[in-house]
């Protein structure tokens, strides 16, 4: 029986110092840790892990102290050693293959019978320096997280032997939350944190219901549950279920961001960015003050600027290149010889190596050391192969003291003992369901569902009044993995975006407003990957007051430092450039390898309503309604062309935008109503501006560059485009334009004469038939007519 129990422990403040983070532990308390592994009754009793009352109080640690030259080199040496060990461990893991080993079966038994309970977690961060005059605090809270093994009826149980092949686990989550309180003073205690009693820790960290305080939650308390099950291969074949299944249910996920919280988050990010900037050159930073030795600080600034310039230019002199080449040969040969002389040490400490390291960057040192490791590995493999070719001599007959090949003793375990233990942990030599399943392409290996009944995102102004509230219902995500195929499925039931001034956006349907399926190596199509998406219509209302408030929410915090702004801009530009390069490389690879894919997008574009404060009849306000129609994008493998060579050269995309229209309405109108037929209405309250129209396009992209064919070909066809124009429409459209103009000055509204938009007037209509763009050719045929 292996039992570990720790209670009422104080966490050391220097616990996070080795991580070089801009935070440090001010105080910490660990109420209870219990670990129970019943080795003698494994498979008959569960493995217990209990964690209770993990309470941590953190604060900023953004001051960077200077270091001496010896301390700098020692820190550099430790950093190189740590990174070298990580690289070697990664290489070792890549070479090792996962199998159903005895140890793996033992681990599966322990995990299969694991009973986990984590309760009362509260990690709080207090900051008084990031935004002087506005102290704030952030905290992560967890009420309970538990996991137990259950049977088919949902009752707690344990599994052993063959039952381990059919495991069911239940996970419960209670009150996971993250808060951010602005303009709040740090906690104070009457005595030192080390002298606090456990009950006082509970009271300070609000673990009792009567002491709970209200917080401004960024993530409001989340409650949910999950179920995990593991099946045998035969059961998976017969039922069609995956070998591993996971279903996660979250009831309500709500994110909120206040104006003061956003201000403090920006300030904290600015403070951490400055810390990272100082930490990058901490090894140059002098340990004396500027006033006592300004010359040292000038040298520090010169070294930093010089390093930045070298990194930015990427250029080296020819003498520097020759020096590095000679040094590389010396370094690798020296390090390899040291490794060969002492095979038990993976990382070598040597004075001569340390002297060479002083002149080199960490990246260069790691690269050269890994080359030396590779050289020694190849030499060892060659020696091993040569050793195997020699005649084998039997040392065992002379009583060699090493372990024999037929060592069945195994620390006193008999064959019966091992057989019984293997039966308990379910170990069968040479059996691996996942290895067998990988040979059957249609066996589902893993299936996961994530359901969110309701989730929302809010922007909160002063006084806890919301500026915008985006709520979604029925968000679900499904992931299926096969030996080759992968399927990702996303479904959104409905959504709406509201503000104090009214509804800004709303899905037209209550279910399946957005559906997307990405498949890699799909079964139902002879392609490498496919993506199918469908979006239902969305009703959008442009309310200027709400849009201005949302923009002002983020614009109000203009006191962002230049460092943070430059880092954010650089990160954004690098991200954009990286996405562009990656997309271009992926597209070039797809085209060159002639990877086949299927694309089917059916997107119902938003239907936009722009209300005005213009009342032509002093009763009904004018609205502009824009129907952006429906967009479909599909790929096509076969199309009509002059030669079969073109079919092999080009990949074709079909683009269709249909049912685009615009009209003006005086009074109330909702998109769910049936549109009025303009030809049958003799009422100025409904004024068409753009008749229903569409556009058809074909885009062809070449697979491989060919001088005889263009790389991109585009054909566009616009069958008909009709505009309606009149003074009444003009006056109303001008009112719409004024909504988007800045209010630079108070300009009196000039009243319109009722006769300007009332009674019969001439109507000018443009009709455009056939708009075709093919390669560099453009055809336009139009007719202009006028009627009254």
UniProtKB/TrEMBL annotation:
Residues 2-495 form the Chorein N-terminal domain. The chain crosses the membrane at residues 759-781. Keywords: Membrane, Transmembrane, Transmembrane helix, Transport. The keyword Ribosomal protein does not apply. It comes from the Eukaryota. InterPro entries: VPS13_N (IPR026854). Pfam families: VPS13_N. PANTHER family: TETRATRICOPEPTIDE REPEAT (TPR)-CONTAINING PROTEIN-RELATED, VACUOLAR PROTEIN SORTING-ASSOCIATED PROTEIN 13A. This is Chorein N-terminal domain-containing protein. The lineage of its organism: Eukaryota, Viridiplantae, Streptophyta, Embryophyta, Tracheophyta.
């Amino acid at each position: 029986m292996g039992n570990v129990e720790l209670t009422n422990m104080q966490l050391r403040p220097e616990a996070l110092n080795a991580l070089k983070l801009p935070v440090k532990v001010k105080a910490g308390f660990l109420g209870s840790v219990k670990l129970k592994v019943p080795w003698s009754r494994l498979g008959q009793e569960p493995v217990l892990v209990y964690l209770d009352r993990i309470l941590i109080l953190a604060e900023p640690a953004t001051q960077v102290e200077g270091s001496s030259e010896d301390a700098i080199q020692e820190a550099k040496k430790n950093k190189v050693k740590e990174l070298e060990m990580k690289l070697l461990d990664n290489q070792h893991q890549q070479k090792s293959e996962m199998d159903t080993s005895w140890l793996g079966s033992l681990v599966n038994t322990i995990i299969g019978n694991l009973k986990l309970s984590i309760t009362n977690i509260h990690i709080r961060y207090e900051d008084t320096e990031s935004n002087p005059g506005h102290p704030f605090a952030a905290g992560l809270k967890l009420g309970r997280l538990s996991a137990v093994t259950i049977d088919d009826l949902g009752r707690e149980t344990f599994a052993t032997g063959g039952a381990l092949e059919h495991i069911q686990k239940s996970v419960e989550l209670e009150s996971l939350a993250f808060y951010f309180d602005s303009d709040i003073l740090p906690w104070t205690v009457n005595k030192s944190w080390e002298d606090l009693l456990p009950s006082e820790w509970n009271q300070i960290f609000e673990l009792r219901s009567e002491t709970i305080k209200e917080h401004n939650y960024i993530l409001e308390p989340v409650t949910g549950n999950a179920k995990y099950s593991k099946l045998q291969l035969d059961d998976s074949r017969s039922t069609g279920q995956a070998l591993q299944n996971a279903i996660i249910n979250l009831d309500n996920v709500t994110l909120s961001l206040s104006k003061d919280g956003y201000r403090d988050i920006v300030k904290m990010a600015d403070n951490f960015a400055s810390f990272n900037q100082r930490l990058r050159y901490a090894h140059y930073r002098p340990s004396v003050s500027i006033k006592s030795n300004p010359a040292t600080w000038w040298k520090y600034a010169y070294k930093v600027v010089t390093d930045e310039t070298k990194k930015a230019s990427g250029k080296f002199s020819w003498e520097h290149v020759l020096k590095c080449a000679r040094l590389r040969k010396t370094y690798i040969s020296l390090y390899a010889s040291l490794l060969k002389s002492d095979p038990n040490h993976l990382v070598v400490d040597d004075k001569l190596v340390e002297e060479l390291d002083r002149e080199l960057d960490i990246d260069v040192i790691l690269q050269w050391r890994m080359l030396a490791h590779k050289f020694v590995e190849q030499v060892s493999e060659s020696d091993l192969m040569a050793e195997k070719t020699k005649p084998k001599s039997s040392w065992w007959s002379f009583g060699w003291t090493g372990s024999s090949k037929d060592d069945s003793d195994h620390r006193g375990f008999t064959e019966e003992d091992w057989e019984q233990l293997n039966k308990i942990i379910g170990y069968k030599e040479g059996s691996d369901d996942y290895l067998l399943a990988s040979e059957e392409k249609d066996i589902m290996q893993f299936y996961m569902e994530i359901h969110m009944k309701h989730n929302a995102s809010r922007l909160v102004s002063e006084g806890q009044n919301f500026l915008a509230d985006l709520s979604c219902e029925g968000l679900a995500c499904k992931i299926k993995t096969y030996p080759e195929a992968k399927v990702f499925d996303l479904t959104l039931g409905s959504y709406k975006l509201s503000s104090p001034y009214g509804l800004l956006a709303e899905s037209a349907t209550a279910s399946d407003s957005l559906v997307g399926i990405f498949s890699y190596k799909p079964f139902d199509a002879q392609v490498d990957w496919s993506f199918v998406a469908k979006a239902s219509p969305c009703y959008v209302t442009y309310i200027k007051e709400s849009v201005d408030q949302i923009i002002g929410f983020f614009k109000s915090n203009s006191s962002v430092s230049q460092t943070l702004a430059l880092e954010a801009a650089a990160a954004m530009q690098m991200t954009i450039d990286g996405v562009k390069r990656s997309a271009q490389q992926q597209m070039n690879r797809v085209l060159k390898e002639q990877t086949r894919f299927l694309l089917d997008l059916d997107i119902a574009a938003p239907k936009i309503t722009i209300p005005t404060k213009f009342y032509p009849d002093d009763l009904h306000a004018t609205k502009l309604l824009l129907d952006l129609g429906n967009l479909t994008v599909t790929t096509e493998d076969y199309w009509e062309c002059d030669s079969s060579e073109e079919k092999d050269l080009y990949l074709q995309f079909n683009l269709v935008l249909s049912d685009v229209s615009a009209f003006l309405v005086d009074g109330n109108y909702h998109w769910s109503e049936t549109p009025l037929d303009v030809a049958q209405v003799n009422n100025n309250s409904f004024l068409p501006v753009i008749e229903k129209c569409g556009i058809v396009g074909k885009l062809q992209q070449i697979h491989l560059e060919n001088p005889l064919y263009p790389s991109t070909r585009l054909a566009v066809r616009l069958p008909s485009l009709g505009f309606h124009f009149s003074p009444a429409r003009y006056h109303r459209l001008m009112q719409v334009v004024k909504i988007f103009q800045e209010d630079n000055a108070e300009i009196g509204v000039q009243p319109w004469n009722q006769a300007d938009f009332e009674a019969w007037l001439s109507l000018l209509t443009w009709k455009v038939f056939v708009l075709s763009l093919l390669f560099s050719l453009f055809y336009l045929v139009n007719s202009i007519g006028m009627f009254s």
